[in-house]
Give the backbone structure.
Amino acid sequence: MRDESAIVYGRYPVLEALRSGQTADRLFVQEGLKEGAVFTILQIAGKLGIRVDFIKKERLDELSRGERHQGVLMYLAAARYYEPSDMLRLAAERGEDAFLFLLDGIEDPHNLGAIIRTANVCGAHGVIIPKRRASGLTTVAAKASAGAVSHTMVARVSNICDTIEKLKKEGMWFVCADMNGKSMYELDLKGPIGLVIGNEGSGVSRLVRENCDFAASIPMKGQISSLNASVACGILAYEIFRQRMEK
């Protein structure tokens, strides 16, 4: 459930929130509305790269729970979004090889928050998430991060594959979590690295997996053959951390 304080209802309240620089997580606009203040809202949203969903009035009524929405409703992000370039700059300032998490469709905000917390405590320079079909920086994710969203850069991109390709040009290489991959203990995980974690149910998508340099699996022994996404991320992240700490 969304925190009511993180929702803005109505055309002019949404417009003023955007103009004041508040970070939007998601914007909903009633189908067919594109004139007047709504047109201005859509222009600003386009410039800022904010995700816009056009939905039926009935669905908007459900989301607003009785509030007068005037065809527009916006979810605010619990923290600002950065760019992947900001993360690379941070790594350079620290004199460290870049270490990034890339999340390919993590939908549960609790998992997202837990992963951001892991990123912070293991020294990663940031977390990259997709704009669509994934959780954003909601208040639930922020709470689950136990404050880590205030100290960890999170970027939201249009396409994870394109982002991987761009980061490869910056000297990074990528390893994804995959049950059929090579044991993480047999891989050299040092250097500028991106750890790719897939969706809770379907894992890393085929195209993203094909764009990764290696696939890493976590050795298991038991009746259960899979791990929660945030747990798997933590295990792999700490193997990377361990190897980075080696002299």
Notes: The mean pLDDT is 91. The radius of gyration is 19 Å. The first helix runs from residue 11 to 19. DSSP finds nine helices and ten strands in the chain.
